[in-house]
Write a structure and sequence with these properties.
Blueprint: H1 3-12, E1 18-26, E2 29-36, H2 37-53, E3 61-65, H3 71-84, E4 87-91, H4 98-108, E5 112-116, H5 118-123, E6 139-142
Parallel strand pairs: 3-4, 3-5, 5-6
Antiparallel strand pairs: 1-2
Helix pairs in contact: 2-3
């Protein structure tokens, strides 16, 4: 069986409505929220519009940092970057992978950095206050709480 045969067969299989089971802390404990494929498509459309509002266009570059358990928002961001035809690199958001993020930041020279975590920033040799949006506009967005730092700067949209 070839790869094309495998993919063709996979497209005929039933797909469950549920895409992710997302866990959120609440005052009463952990709450599980079901996220369907339709809701994920809606989130991807929303993320595409937001990234477009910030000026991301085809041919630009982005860096996305996320952890596996954050697939529910990472998936939407990847879909948005693909829809906009933005070249992107992916790094783990955990602190132990801060070097890969720093290398991507230096070598990819991204127009946007999405999902920065406090752990990643703690490992960088450059402190956030010394990183400026000078020259070509560069945007930085922290990932969603409670996993991310809230004090990360962001360059304003154009």
């Amino acid at each position: 069986m070839t790869r094309a045969d495998t993919l063709a067969r996979a497209r005929t299989l039933d797909r469950p409505e549920l895409a992710y089971l997302v866990r959120f802390p609440t005052a009463d404990g952990i709450r599980d929220v079901e996220l369907t494929w339709a809701e994920l498509a809606r989130d991807t459309d929303w993320a595409t519009a937001r990234l477009r509002d910030h000026g991301l266009t085809a041919g630009q570059r982005a860096l996305l940092t996320a952890s596996g358990f954050e697939g529910f928002w990472g998936h939407a961001m990847i879909g948005a970057l693909r829809a906009l035809r933005v070249t992107y690199g992916i790094a783990e958001a955990m602190g132990w992978d801060h070097r890969r993020t720093a290398v991507f930041h230096r070598e990819l020279d991204p127009h946007a950095v999405i999902g920065l975590s406090a752990e990643t920033l703690e490992g960088w040799p450059v402190r956030p206050t010394s990183v400026r949006c000078s020259g070509r506009r560069r945007s930085y967005w922290p990932g969603p709480p409670p996993y991310r730092c809230c004090g990360v700067w962001a360059c304003p949209p154009p």
